[in-house]
From TrEMBL:
UniProt record, GO biological process: proteolysis
Domain Ubiquitin-like protease family profile: start-end pairs: 182-283
Family: Belongs to the peptidase C48 family.
Highest taxon of the lineage: Eukaryota
The UniProt record lists the keyword Protease: yes
Pfam families: Peptidase_C48 (PF02902)
InterPro entries listed in its UniProt record: Papain-like_cys_pep_sf, Peptidase_C48_C
Designated name of the protein: Ubiquitin-like protease family profile domain-containing protein
Keywords from the named record: Hydrolase, Protease
GO molecular-function term, one example from the UniProt record: cysteine-type peptidase activity
Amino acid sequence: MGILSGLISAASTTLRRGLMAPAGAKSAMDIWAADGKIRVKEWSDQRIANARKSLAEIWRDIRTEGKITYQSTVRDQIANYPESSAEYQILRYARNSALPPEEVLYQDVKKRRILKRMDLRKLVTKSGVPETITDIRIDQINKSSVTASNGHLKKFIFPTDLASSLERNATEIDENEYLKGKIDARKCDLWCVPISSRNHAVAMVINIKDARVECLDSGGPNKAQFFLNAGPLCDRIFKAVAAYVGSTRRDVDFAKFEWRFPRVPCQPAGSNACAIYRLRFLEEWGAGGDGMDLTSKFQGWDEEYWHAKERVKICASILTDDSNAILEEVKEKARRRHTMIKRRQLIAIGLLILLV
């Protein structure tokens, strides 16, 4: 009996040691053979978490298949870019909520502007648009206007802080800050000013050629509402631009200018898309006739999530712009992340096949 009980005790000790994980093991389970030479280790906890997350994402896509939502519109717009393109990979990288929100993805050293992931996530969600993003996009539009007009700018869009400076009791346009001597006021016919007042973004265009002030408001052509939001500020802006332009164009009688409210697309009720619509208005607006109607230039603008598509386009154009000093660095990070996600998706699909 003593020999038999000893053998049973030794066998139970060996079995117990085999089923116990070694000290300090981070895996869910370690299995050792009796001789201690063969070891089979389960995936690390991080890989398990990643696989579960991928499965959750696949299940979410299955549940929302065929249903048009804001997020599905954003995903579809991103998917319009080739998967191998910088735009596709950077957009996926920028809106990834699992990555640090404080990471800088855009940096303009010359103008001291930076955009973090949390700023770009605001752009591609239903949130309001940061003024820095608006100003970067305005610079792009101005740059393209110069190229299209062979250096003779017909339209100039001021940055958002012009309205802010005039609201702070400034009375004149700072030529050194805004114009830098690159614009011939005698040839520029459209002077565009973005205005933000009472949490609503609008724009006013001083049209020298047609002698009128055109008010562009995605809230609708409601004169009373427009002036309620930005009336006093519009008056100051008009006087400041008139003083600047009038110093070189003596033939312009600003006292005879008319205030007009052209027909433009309206944003969805309850949305925070006014800044997105304003940017598109400023990009498309030109010195046309009295019957100018911007709705003809906005294909699908009446769709519920049209502005989601515009947000994605603006985000892609800003991140890949040549003014981004860290563009190549961001491209490389996005490429590596894309490769890792593709591998994770293959693992998740393999798990699904095994489960089925």
